[in-house]
Specification:
single chain, 281 residues, alpha+beta, Chitinase A, domain 3, 2 domains, 9 helices, 16% strand, elongated
Amino acid sequence: MRRAATVAFVLLAAAGCARNGRSGAAGPSVVATVGDRRVTLEEFFASARNAAGEDPKNVSPRVLSSLLDQYLEEILLDRAVAAARPPAQGALPAERRRAYLARRAGLEAITDADLRKEFDAHPDRYRRPALVRLSQLLFPTREAADAALKKLKDGAAWIDVSRASSAAPNAASGGSLGLLGRSDLPREFEKAIWGLPAGGTSGVLPAPHGFHVFRVEERLDGRDITFEEARAGLRISLAEELSAKAVEDTIAEARASFPVAILEDHLPFPYVGTNPRAATR
């Protein structure tokens, strides 16, 4: 009889602690709750170690707080997917999440009309500026640059001069700088380079780190990109935008069903994240 009374007292005391929201009832290893899901320090540190690529003890409190917030959002997403009706299809959790977010974002319902609307709304995104394909030679002295330029004027091949005397990092392959717009060029070189025709070579151009000679390999005029050319990229960018919105909305709704709380006293670092702290007494 006395034993039954003692058990009843313990159960009532535990229930009272839960009602009063005492974080101690969760145990010292529990650092957060997502609804009735308890998140332990061990599981969070395993996630943080994987994300940061090093021991969490060597990571700053601000970064750890951000990683904890991200981990809790992952849990919120998983709980939302698990509660979805009809259930999301997929053999693995990651597959079910993708299926759920694709459904919520309406990715399969994207039409050419949607893409056209996006295309027409942002014409500035679909204009290719004029570009030059540029190569460079780089020399430590003016004398070396003048000598190389003379060889080029005498008919030497650019690649041979580059390999023999250029100090550019990729001199062995000709010093290509790729396609560049006018705004990509250093201000001190812009006028000299932009006025060159395709195949044209600049004079020696001094800079604080050496002396340059440039050649324009190709010129591409600016032009408007057509809808057909932009279609594939439009579909990807619109899908990414809708998917990001679906993730944001799903997490916001999941917070209402599965409230998040941080048990700050159980963390070995000062929490500076955005989630509410659990009430303690």
